[in-house]
Amino acid sequence: MKEMTFEEFSREVNNIYKKNCEVYYKLASHFGMTETMVDILYFVRENDGGYTQAQLCESLHLRKQTVNSALKKLEKDGVICLSQDSGNKKSKTIHFTEKGKELAQSTVDPIFELEQRAFKRLTSQERENVLYYGYRHIDILEDEMKKLLERNKKKQ
Predict the structure, then answer these.
(1) Which residues form a coiled coil (predicted)?
(2) pTM
(3) I need a surface site. Which of 16, 77, 131, 154 has the fewest CB within 10 A?
């Protein structure tokens, strides 16, 4: 096998990322929602609610404004309710309404199921490799990003 160039590698990594995004975009579209809305429903379903918007943003690696817009739409549609967090007056926790639980069952649960079927089609070694090399690559990218930001900071 010939050595891959940076350009070839970069193109393939970006292609994997974009194909992954496309799968979830198509699922969200199929269910008549945005990707962010599905991400929120998925996260709340997976974690039994009780998270704040800030925690949601951090966990999903999404911008606050993007999450806020999606939460407002989901709340307006009666899918979620935001309740005052007892520990912080400014903070509200996110919970499903009955309508939200039903929506999650008809949208997120089928996504969980297809992800589980895909998981089962990978060997144990393939699963480990996906995680190991995915995290290895992102760790190196983050390290290089920090170096770049630090260099730019010193120039200012």
Answers:
(1) none
(2) 0.85
(3) 154
